[in-house]
Amino acid sequence: MKKLTILCILPLLIIFNACNGNKSSMQEESAAYYNSAISWYDKGNIYNAIADYNRAIKITPNDASAYVNRGAAWAKQGKIKLAIADYDRAIKIDRDFEEAFFNRGLALQKTKKYQNSISDYKKVLQINPQNAKALNNLAWLLATCPNKKYCNGIQAIQLAKKAVELDLTPNNLGTLAAAYAATGKFNNAVNMQKKAIDLLYKKNRIDKIDQYINCLNSYKKNKPWIDNN
To answer: Model-level pTM greater than 0.70?
Structure first.
């Protein structure tokens, strides 16, 4: 009986190993396309990047990261609906995928679906309360949203302050300035915006200076900044 048992199991082991080898080969092929897509994206060739993400996803359709990255490529092309669809797929695969929620929140913000965007940013912060980008984006939305229904300057200040504490950047300082302006604290807004501009010069990011100066001029006139983009 033992010999029969061994004879019965051995073919199964051979088949199992063969399946494992085939699976490993497929994963390697998918990874090769995935890495190639990243390379194409970094070079600015979004078309080829999407093509390689398509190939990777065809081989490993449950790879949430591939959907998130392809979504980012779609967004780069301005195809926001396709980007959101890919983020949806990634989240369906991984319900705690921080980057998927963040990217979808940004895409929804661009399509003016503010409530859904806010929900996604809050989900990111549930997963990782130290995500400075999510703190900043949510603060900016609450401070500058053209739909007053979603504005909350006090909460925006709290979020923006935390973002600045975690990551001192011109962008985060500018968001804190906008949050101050949203609550009528225009002197604070002017001072903070000036700090943001000074930091821009220090970081040699003068390509973005025009928008920062426009915001500063608005605060000097006691007007909050409204983001209509």
So the answer is: yes
